[in-house]
Amino acid sequence: MTMESDIVPPYRRTRSRGRSRRICRQFDRSPASNKLQVPGTSKLWERRSLPHAHDTRRCEARCRVIGMTVPFQSTTASNANPLSIPESVMNRHLFSITSIASLTALTAISLAGLAATQDTKPAPKPATAPAVVATPTASAEGVRAYNVDDIHSSAMFRVLHAGAGQFWGRFNGIAGTFTLADDASKSAFSITVDVASVDTSVDQLDGHLKGADFFNVAEFPTMSFSSRSTTSSSTGVLEISGDLTLHGVTKPVTAVGEITGVSDMSGTARAGVEVVFTIKRSDFGMNYGVAKGMLGDSVRILVNIEGVQAK
């Protein structure tokens, strides 16, 4: 049997009578709750059962402190609302939220004022574009220098065979430099051909052409051309006059052709030139087959060069 002395004295006998009544009122709001957080503190209170019914007009509930909890978690009966929050705690949270909202609004107003102040400042002057410096390969006169791309360049020749068909051969080794200018008279060409690279697709014939009857590559390994003047017609036809050295002999020749294209499609500036000219073999000391007419004396030479712009 529970004695009256074993129970915590009623609120009217305690020093904190007012607080105890507030605790009791909180219990009245949550009749199904047996434990309650003291508003404004971390104390957890428990309702003690009494031998008589609880009367809200004359509080006789006995309560005791059963522990401390941080943070507070309310223990309720199964039919209690798990989302219920004490009114004092709710008011305190609402005050904090209101304060934060006010501070946020003041901050936004301050930032807006700062932005408006900054907008009134004069706009910075645009940076002056750097002066364009002409590259060494493109002078003020529009002269562009190129190195011959031997892979995409070639020199071909054609000669009449046995008074009937035109026989074609080619030279695979070609090198040199050239310049193209807006004023064609300032364009220039210096081309060298490796005569030993002669190619007719017939090994026996290639060997004969390299011998003493024709090019004599052992003594004269190269053929070269150096321009002296260049002109261009209104239709873009080039006339390039210069000196051709072949088989140890130098003779003046004039080649006619055109600029086939100027492009930087591959990421590198390139230009192409194709020219054609005709020589007599006998002028350069190559007379094999001329007397009997087995091989023609006139040889047509077609040169196609592609150059990569020099850096």
Q: Can you tell me the CATH architecture of the largest domain? A: Beta Barrel
**Strand pairing plus helix content: what structural class?**
alpha+beta
Which whole number gives the mean pLDDT?
Answer: 75
Total helices: the number is 3
- Using DSSP, what is the number of strands? 12
Largest sheet: 9 strands, antiparallel
Q: What is the CATH superfamily classification of the largest domain?
A: Lipid/polyisoprenoid-binding, YceI-like
Indicate the multimeric state: single chain
Range of strand content = 35-45%
CATH topology of the largest domain: Lipocalin
Cα-atom radius of gyration = 54 Å
How many domains? 2
Percent helix: 10-25%
Distance N to C terminus: 111 Å
Shape: rod-shaped
Q: Give me the strand/helix succession.
A: HEEEHEEEEHEEEEE
- Segments where pLDDT lies below 50 for 5+ residues? 1-15, 50-85, 127-137
Class of the largest domain in CATH? Mainly Beta
Describe this structure in words.
There is one protein chain. The protein is of the alpha+beta class. It has 2 domains: 4-77 and 85-91, no CATH class; 143-309, Lipid/polyisoprenoid-binding, YceI-like (Lipocalin, Beta Barrel). The protein is built from 3 helices and 12 strands. It has helices at residues 17-29, 87-119, 203-210, and strands at 35-37, 43-48, 62-68, 143-148, 154-161, 165-181, 188-199, 222-232, 238-246, 249-263, 270-280, 295-309. The strands form 2 sheets. Strands 4, 5, 6, 7, 8, 9, 10, 11 and 12 form a 9-stranded antiparallel sheet that branches. A 3-stranded antiparallel sheet has the order 1-2-3, with helices on one face. β5 and β6 (165-181) form a beta hairpin. The radius of gyration is 54 Å and the shape is rod-shaped. Mean pLDDT is 75; it is low at 1-15, 50-85 and 127-137.
